[in-house]
Amino acid sequence: MEPVSVVIVDDHPAIVDGVRAWCAAAAPPITVVAWGHEPAVAVSGAGAAADVVLFDLQLETGVLAFDAVGRLVAGGRRVVVYSQAADDATVLRCLETGVSTYLTKAEGREHLIPAVHAAARDLPYVSPALGGVMAGDRRADRPVLSDREREVLLAWFESDSKNLVAARFGLSVKTIDTYIARVRIKYADVGRPASTKAALVARALQDGLVDLGDL
């Protein structure tokens, strides 16, 4: 597995120290390149080059920092939200923003380490808290997918490679790309864009197109 680096945006020193210790003890280790209590630490110095941004929504201002998360995601960063907030509205708003995944601080090391590794590889990670929120979110604005679009989507979720998906269905990689692009367009058309694989997994879980057992 390739080395992974992370920058921590959190205003609780005990949390920062704990996460740094977990990362150092991980196998393979995760390198914490910078940490601080303001979002700026993720966009300057060593933090700007980190593979993953671990972000606490509730910083010193007391206002949930959705805008800062949105700017990071828009800038192409992989963001894992790690927050005390566990309400459905907050979690879903972060997913809509395009974060890689959402963890509550109650979930701890058991989920934080694999979530960071997954985010660094642009793979989905669904913690128990996130799974519960997504399973309960049934929206009226879900797109209608064809059976083949759904099959290709699930096969892609189960695999790291579109080449493997193409071989499974006897199709070209270009055709697989077309199916996935079509699904993205359908989500964008209903106002729920999914620009990353993790976001597309979240959409599919929210809409009941797949369930946690499938993954």
TrEMBL record:
The modification 4-aspartylphosphate is found at residue 56. SMART domains: HTH_LUXR, REC. It comes from Pseudonocardia charpentierae. This is Response regulator. PROSITE patterns: RESPONSE_REGULATORY. Residues 5-120 form the Response regulatory domain. Keywords: DNA-binding, Phosphoprotein.
